[in-house]
Amino acid sequence: MNLHSKLLKREAEGRPLRIGLIGAGKFAAMYLAQVPKTPGVHVAGIADLSPENARTNLGRVGWDPARYGAQSLDAALRERRTHVGEDWQALVSHPLIDIIVEATGNPIAAVDHVLAAFAHGKHVLMVTVEADALCGRLLALRAHEAGLVYSLAYGDQPAIICDLVDWARASGFNVVAAGRGHKWLPHYAQSTPDTVWEYYGLSPEQARLGGLNPKMFNSFLDGSKPAIESTAVCNATGLTPAPWGLAFPPASIDQIPSVMRPVAEGGKLHHKGQVEVVSSLEPDGRAISYDIRMGVWVVFEGETEYVRRCFAEYGLRTDASGRYGCMYKRWHLIGLEAGISIASIGLRGEPTGCATGFRADAVAAAKRDLRAGEMLDGEGGYTVCGRLMPAADSLREGALPLALAHGARLLNPISAGATVRWSDVAIDPAASAVRIRREMEQRFACKG
Hints:
single chain
């Protein structure tokens, strides 16, 4: 409740939180749009593979070029300006940087960046949720052992879901289910970058003029991003998936309490304490009014008659029994809200979501029949989509994490819809992300 006052104090004392940002794409640009209006925070350096694109984004969000004209990181820190370059290692190693924001969207690179940040005593805000789904539990443990904070990014849906779950539990409620919304029909699982705009309702020309990346947008549409984000939520909150993963039941916001209750009580849940994603489309494709497509929700129980009367007195949306109620945020603002995480990490030493177990996994499943020798193209591409699985099932089946399915060559044919396994691909065992993932499997298998 008092993060802003704490930031004002740091500003008045001349001790801003000093930030190093790796990756200057969409999320980062949205965060940078808010930094000039946020006291007590100094983005000292930005590292991006294309510094010119980073400068373009800074101009797009309204930064004065003089603000990011520092010739070196040392000069930026001295002058309270921002240095833009390619050298991410300079950011993670500089002794005056407090927090590293990993926003590349590349899970393989992100693991390297985060491990290096920990080695140099930096807290980490993990925007690249794909990396958290891959090995977040082990990264969180590494941070804890070093006395550092590792956190999901507020503004992205997983951290906001974690916040709602924490609110419900801290208020004394049993959490029945939590998750996000999504525009979903079953055939979207086979969508490719060639079909994504049709399903989105855009023409290719509109997408081109908007500078939209079809592979990135397709990762949302085909269920990959919901699987990744649901994995992060499970591993951070203790909620767990159904055995079959995500079912995407359709519901309006008012219907969520009725749909997100156990099957035995007329709902769609396999069990209480489940993560799920609500579709904004009916099975026949009709749009649902008052949907939760861009938002997040939590369903919780009124376990006594008195509490259920309170639900009714204060107008809470519930199921017909009055037992199950729902709180929600209908929208999320991505990088515009990331300052909440920066302040929480730097001022309270607390994450806004952090893996506490290895309970769920986002694995690769074939979009079509795949031949031996084909190269997988990862999240949002032509070959595989993401599927949510209980971690124990993933380990038992030897399932390949989706984050490692980019650039991997198939050794065996895979039938459409089948899970890709470690044994089906040729993959570099020496890569940091592969080693960390294998270590996590060994250390946390069956520990939950």
